[in-house]
Amino acid sequence: MVSLALNKSETKFETKDWNKLERSGRKLKRNEGRFLIRPKHTNRDVYIIRQGNVAIYQQDEKTPLAVLGPNDVLGNRSIFVHQNLYAKAITDVELIQLDQASYRSLYLAYPELAIKLTTELSKLKLKLDFPDQLPKSIFAVLKKNTKSLLNKAPTKKGRYCHNC
Q1: What is the pLDDT of residue 8?
Q2: Residues facing residue 51 across a β-bridge
């Protein structure tokens, strides 16, 4: 499986956003090698990475599906529902944890920030669910569609065929 590194150059959260997140959630530190989320877990927490890197793996794979870094968001709401995925710190990590009650409070108090979080969770879900679906260019799409049209096998004559 191909590893997917998310774009780290863009800043998703400003200083005021981090202040709101810290007031709403709980600061955590995890050492390298510690799990954030295990397969078949029951928590529904959302994590925002402040520093460090976290890798997302499938239960039986050795290669990460994604490597997340500062300003990235992960959690049960986005990618871990009904999947055998887990998240593991690959460096020492500082993050903010939002449990269900904190996440709900954040939605009520800071709706614009909650929308940012939800958007980031959705982007990650799409990238993990459909890594091969994101074409590199329009030419890749055209090439794929052209090949499928050329390789179609002739169909059998049907019940309404005039040449039968």
Answers
A1: 45
A2: 94
